[in-house]
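My main concern about presentation is that the manuscript never shows what a single data entry looks like. Each protein is reduced to its one-letter sequence and a matching series of backbone shape codes. For the editor and my fellow referees, an illustration may be useful. For illustration, here is how one protein appears when written out as sequence plus structure tokens:
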Amino acid sequence: MGFRVYKAGIPKLVTRSHADYNWDVSHDNELFGVAESRGDVSGNRNNLRKPGILTHMSPGISTVLPIGKRIVNRIERVIHVEMSRIGAKEVELPMLLSSDTINERRNEFGRELFSLTDRNGKHYDLCPTCEELICRMLDKALSPLSKRNLPIYLYQIGRKFRDEARPCNSNMRCREFIMKDAYSFHSDKDSAAMDYNKFKQAYERIFTLLELSFDTVTIGDTEHEFRAMLPNKKTLMEIAHIFQLGDAITTEAGLKYEGEGRMKHPVYLNSYGIGIHRLLQAAASQHADSEGIRLPQIIAPYDVAVIPCDENSEQASADIYTLLSKRGIDTFLDTRKAPINQRVSDMMNIGIPHIVYVSSVYTEKAMSCPNEDITMKIIEGSKKSNYYHQYQSPTYSLLQDKEIPDTIQRINVGYSHRSFPGEYTIPVSKLLQLLAVAR
């Protein structure tokens, strides 16, 4: 491989074929599902479909597409970090329950409960909620359960099923959906109340980090609901619900803790649920504009889009892509054989915040940077996102052995940010500063 030096212009691609990166296969395919029809989706019920986030299969059943899955992964990563912050441990619970698991609440679920029968005539339910199940799990895993073990915080992110009477092609009434559900177990009411507030504050922190506009609604003394505004529907949507459940469910499940003299005592249970797909709906709705979705970097599918504007800029684009990937930044390299305005429109549509244009024309332009106020806001958003997502992309590992010239940082590129007006001409070194990865 030859050593490349960037001077006045950007050389043609001569030392490495773009096939080395498998560009067209890996990136073009990732955008399948992005609607060809572009335009204002801020008031459109399809603001999850047009950016290629999901597609509806039938009423109440959707599939999440590659771009949408990236957003979901970022939302879930924030949740994992914040649950770890308060000491919650992740578990994985089955979706298939023996029919006796939720016997006491079967009437409560009524016809919303999906049930099935195996070849031997044994009845099962598809999991609508996990309070009874996690109590049974804890009883089997910690026997006897001691007061010294309490409190215990557990959570999972998994699928739930509800036979909705009126399922719809939104994430408000789904038959199958992803929920983050957490549970805390306590030796007394005071401990349950104290840790209930800990989880409540953690949930408010998560929604604030995701830059969602939400209300916390108090329902009695032991229940709160979190609601996000859907501007396109002019309504509030429940995105999370938390409860202090007392000891009724744990007692029914046979879960008690052992105290002095081996006496059995009731265990108090709290439950905390977040609808992951509802967060997706709320984020897309609240951040929609005339060009698509303007997502905050912390939940955007990629941090950066690099767009080579002509064939002569492909090599430099590849090197910038490699540089950013090796710094742990999730980067989309758009080398599709499509008009430049279409590629830019697609990057805006799916909500990538940092857009980089690579062309020799920028070497002839005077450098222009965002003003100090905008620069600080961009860097702040990058730092917040990097805290949760830097070095998490598989590309970071795949490109560690790729060599790039140090001089790549000195070339000028075009730059724009999805949340701020204007296009700038900056050196790649300045781009690294805006992404908070300069060394």
The longest strand covers residues 235-246. The mean pLDDT is 87.
